[in-house]
Amino acid sequence: MKPREIIPDVFFVGAPDFDRKLFDSLIPLPHGTSYNAYLVRGRDKTALIDAVEPTKLHVLEAYLKDVPKVDYLISDHTEQDHSGGIPWVLGRYPGIQVLSSELAKPMLVDHLGLDGNVIRAVADGERLDLGGKTLRFISTPWVHWPETMSTYLEEDKILFSCDWFGSHIAQTELFVDGVEEIMASAKRYYAEIMMPFRKIIQKDLDKIKDLEIRLIAPSHGPIYRDPQSVIRAYRDWSDDKPHNTVVIPWVSMHGSTAIMVERLIAGLVERGVTVHPFDMASADIGRLAMTLVDAATLVIAAPTVHVGPHPMVFNAVILANALRPKVRFAAIVGSYGWAGKMVDIIQAAIPNLKVEMLPSVIAKGLPKPADLEAIDALAAAIASKHQELGLT
Ligand code: FEO
Question: Ligand 1 atom 2: the closest Cα is on which residue?
Answer without folding.
Answer: 79
